[in-house]
Amino acid sequence: MTGNYIACHHCGQLHERSALVSGQRASCVRCGTVLWSQGVLNSSAWLAIVLTSLIAFIIASFMPVGTITAVGLKSSSTFLEAVAATWRAGYPSVAIMCFATGFLMPLLDALILAWLLAFSRKGQRAPGLNQLSRWLHWVRPWAMVPVFMLGALVAIVKLADMASLTPGAGLWAYAALTFLLTGLSKLNSERVWLLAEQDGAVKNIPVTIDPQQLPLDCEICGQITMSTEPEAQCQRCHNHVHFRKPGHRTRTLAILLTAIILYFPANLYPVMINTTVLGGTASHTILGGILELWNLGSWDLALIVFIASFVVPLTKIVILGILIGRPAQGRRDTMMRYTRMYQTVELIGQWSMLDVFVVILLTSLVNFGSLMSVRPDVGAAAFGMVVVVTMLATMNFDIRKGWDQVDDDIEQPDYQPAATAPTFS
């Protein structure tokens, strides 16, 4: 059986690809995951959005996020100045994490998209397409501009009782950039390859299904490669592909245990220290900061921070622990629940970085020497590492392994593809 196929990244089910009309999407017949969609935007339209986001990104990065006035003094800060202030305060690990997630990764993401789409819209294969699409896949989860935008709003509220703050051009640019990047989040590496197919820049290689071979799914370009070995090279983009991630459970468990160890100092130690000439020195833990927002009357932001900084990391740890420690043992209904749980962890992963961004922004803005200052503390470094480590644990886990044990009437032992996936508007 020869044709163009696509595999579900969450259960491994093969589907025959079919043409969709604009606005339609196809979902997996087994676990319900959306496989692909036919958007209304072509490569030229996506390129226009990417270029607009780059302009907004430059403004956001190099213009002040805000200016505060206290005791007759003024202080303003850009994002990069906040990173530099955090480094000077003695926490290079926090500075590096924030620089990477708030500046470097989003910039690389946008530049790669601009390069690939610029050639695709002309029906040409972009030079370096294979490597650049891999980079796009790797950097995308670590681009956290929307998280920083929310962190800036939290910082503004925290400053309300100690100084007056005037929003700067950088803050408005971040707001626009958040809106643009939310749309661009749909444009992952597979979607870029799909657009290139539609533009005639690349072709999907037909696959012959052989019961004696394993279908290896490429997460970069979506191509299926048949092989007698559990790992091989993608026949289209030459990415190293596996039938299933080897040793995923042991590796995920080791990373998860690291996250659990870091979780305690992240919550017990202060994330920042506030020093004033009149009030002395006050330390703030994550929960202390939440209570402060609540006492200021910002119960909505307090709830957001509580969810992002306390509930989300704990939820990720608990869910991953369940997925590792309680196998579904072939039960389809359990695997459906586990798949939704795993998708939730994938979705919420980066939002825990919120408090770390708040700390670096306050460190830079509240900088009046001995009169008033804020500096990060060990809790911020530990909490940032919790975010990074739990995201790595999620990336290393392979939910498809559980589906391999499910015996239902959709997945066949010889991995025959299902009928064309259902489409809906």
TrEMBL record:
Pfam families: PqiA. It comes from the Bacteria. GO terms for cellular component: plasma membrane. It is found in: Cell inner membrane. Keywords: Cell inner membrane, Cell membrane, Membrane, Transmembrane, Transmembrane helix. The chain crosses the membrane at residues 45-73, 93-117, 138-157, 169-187, 253-273, 301-324, 345-366, 378-397. PANTHER family: INTERMEMBRANE TRANSPORT PROTEIN PQIA (PTHR30462:SF3), INTERMEMBRANE TRANSPORT PROTEIN PQIB-RELATED (PTHR30462). This is Paraquat-inducible protein A. It comes from Advenella incenata.
